[in-house]
Amino acid sequence: MLRVLEEEQQREDGIEEGKIWEENVKKVRKAGIGKIWAKEDEDKSKNYEKQMEKWNDQVIVNEKERREKRELQRLDDGKKILTRGETQKENEQKNSKELKKKLK
């Protein structure tokens, strides 16, 4: 008996939910919600395109900065090599002077 009452209640709830759903569908059709969704999708796609352009521009800027940093690093490395070479020459000169003094 209790089970029958529960099933009957569930059927009534289902019927009420169905009616509510049908009413919502009618409202949506009247409002032309499809047009609204299409407009929202169009706006989203435009925003996405704008964002992609910004990202692409940022990537280009970042790549230019990386290239400049690499070039500066290469120039700095070249200067370091020259200074190392100069110090080596200075050391060799000092060593040769010391050797000459010892040999005398």
Description:
There is one protein chain. This protein is mainly α and about 100 residues long. The protein has a domain of about 55 residues. It is built from two helices and no strands. The longest helix has about 70 residues. The protein is elongated. The model has no long low-confidence stretch (mean pLDDT about 80).
Question: What are the salient characteristics of this protein?
Answer:
104 residues, mainly alpha, 2 helices, 97% helix, 0% strand
Structural class: mainly alpha
SSE arrangement, N to C: HH
**What is the terminal-to-terminal distance?**
127 Å
Basic shape: elongated
| Tally of contiguous helical segments | 2
- Number of DSSP strand runs: 0
Main beta-sheet strand count, sense and barrel state: none
Helical proportion? over 70%
- The radius of gyration computed from the alpha-carbon positions, rounded to a whole number of angstroms, is 41 Å
- The mean pLDDT is 78
Extract low-pLDDT stretches. none
Oligomerization state: single chain
Give the percentage of residues in beta strands. Answer: under 5%
